[in-house]
Design a protein that fits this description.
The protein is an alpha/beta fold. Helices cover 45% and strands 21% of the residues.
Length: 473
């Protein structure tokens, strides 16, 4: 009797999920894959769908962006902007319009943009800026990992709080899982306000585990901001035993664009803490650099209407006329980006991708390599960096537009993570990023299509197996 009841219940739940799949409008191949999993893997298929398969763009995880209070706050943040010139808009009007519709934030001029390469330069600049804080320090990180950096931050926070500076920290519940309760209590005891983003709780496990905050943001007094690929971890300074030194790119920003990053932090803080005092626009600071760079912030997450960062990459690739240089550790691009790269290359655009020879995950490594054959066949040049681990997420197109941020070129970043990127419309900055890229590929190995095609069948088998997991990696 119990078996009949369990079978009936399983069929009932399976039927309900089938209706949801059909209503949610997923791609046919994805819908078919989930239907196959649900009806061929007893119990496990439904469990996997509930954890990984639900479409959060149809079923919003959070609705805070649509509240009048948040909408008013964003409007006031945008009001601080310095408008761009007609020439700048006309040159990149498609991507500017796209990002503005997706992420609310229009481009603004008068910004001071400093390129920070690797951990030592980045944290030197961060600590110098933190020491100058007079009113508040806001930090948001995917990985906040204990070590020398967190000890130095603790000592600095203790000093700044005594001076009357407010310190707020957001950290991801999975990325910062190793952060000890002892360290958190120490921060709280000195007056730091700290919250975990999407903590893994009983009863909410299935609805939150797959959606992570991958952003890296620091805002100081509304005057200075930092974002990019570097987490708070000692491996960016001294490396780790498996991969060596982690190489990455970060940005230091001053100017009107800081208000965009402050607004993103404020929305994330409000979502986690429900404290609406963070939506106070008195923290906005008006600063404009003469002949400064034009910058636009794009952000996306599982609660966005569209995958804004994916569409940003797609638009930049399609805008290219001469070249596209991409540095990214995780190339699991999905069909649209993959096709865009192939079409660009086959149309005569010089498309180059730089990534590490090593990987921090075996399945991810083979999944990434499963895309190499098609890209190489289309003429895309792929370079493998042999030393350490390249963690940078950059793209530069035609020495006119570039992006630095947190978004990996993979399905997880596009669909499931909270991400943020800075798009810089500045020839000088793009040229600096291009020069760095060309220096790095000189120390890298370029893959040859014919040689790659001769790889052992065992490698092809690993690639094929790993590619199955591409939607969740």
């Amino acid at each position: 009797m119990l078996l009949y009841v369990a079978t009936a219940l399983y069929i009932l739940i399976g039927g309900f999920i089938v209706i949801r799949l059909l209503l949610n409008g997923m791609r046919p191949t994805k819908t078919l894959a989930w239907l196959f999993a649900i009806f061929t893997i007893p119990v496990g298929g439904i469990f996997l769908y509930l954890m990984l398969g639900r479409n959060r763009r149809k079923n919003k995880l959070f609705e805070l962006k649509h509240t009048p209070k948040v909408a008013s706050y964003i409007a006031k943040a945008i009001h601080q902007y310095s408008p761009i010139t007609k020439k700048e808009f006309e040159e990149h009007h498609k991507i500017i319009s796209l990002i503005t519709k997706n992420s609310y934030f229009a481009p603004c001029t008068g910004n001071d943009v400093k390129l920070l390469k690797n951990g030592e330069a980045t944290f030197r600049a961060i600590f110098d800026a933190l020491k100058s804080a007079e009113h508040f320090i806001h930090l948001e990180y995917y990985i906040f990992e204990e070590g020398k950096l967190t000890t130095d931050l603790f000592n600095l926070f203790q000093k700044k709080i005594k001076e009357g500076v407010t310190v707020k920290i957001l950290y991801d519940g999975i990325g910062s899982m190793s952060l000890s309760k002892k360290y958190i209590r120490q921060l709280q005891n000195i007056g730091v306000e700290i919250h975990k983003f999407l903590p893994i709780k009983f009863g909410k496990f299935l609805s939150s585990i797959n959606y992570r905050n991958h952003r890296k943001i620091i805002v100081i007094d509304g005057k200075t901001a930092f974002t990019g690929g570097i987490n708070v971890s000692d491996k960016y300074i001294k490396g780790d035993t498996d991969l060596g030194v982690w190489y990455d790119i970060h940005l230091q920003l001053k100017g009107p664009v800081v208000q965009s990053l402050q607004a993103i932090f404020a929305m994330d803080w409000y979502m986690v803490s429900k404290e609406d005092s963070i939506l106070d626009t008195s923290c906005f600071y008006t600063y404009k650099k003469e002949n400064g760079s034009t910058v636009q912030i794009v952000h996306s997450g599982p609660d966005s209407d569209f995958s804004a960062t994916q569409q940003m990459y797609f638009s930049m690739i399609n805008e290219a006329k001469e070249y596209i240089y991409i540095t990214n550790p995780y190339i699991i691009p999905g069909e649209s980006i993959l096709d865009a790269l192939k079409v660009a290359s086959m149309s005569g655009v010089d498309v180059r991708i730089l990534l590490s020879e090593k990987s921090d995950n075996v399945i991810v490594k083979w999944c990434i390599r499963s895309y190499f054959e098609g890209l190489l066949q289309a003429g895309v040049k792929i370079y493998l960096f042999p030393e350490g681990f390249i963690h940078s997420k950059t793209i530069v197109v035609d020495t006119t537009i570039s992006s630095v941020g947190t978004t990996n070129l993979d399905i997880r970043s596009f669909e499931q993570n909270y991400e943020v990127n800075a798009v810089i419309y500045d020839d000088t900055f793009a040229l600096a990023l291009k020069d760095d890229f060309l220096k790095d590929i000189k120390n890298s190995t370029q893959l040859d299509f014919n040689t790659f095609m001769q790889r052992p069948w065992s490698q092809k088998l690993k690639e094929g197996f790993a590619k199955i997991f591409s939607p969740v990696l």
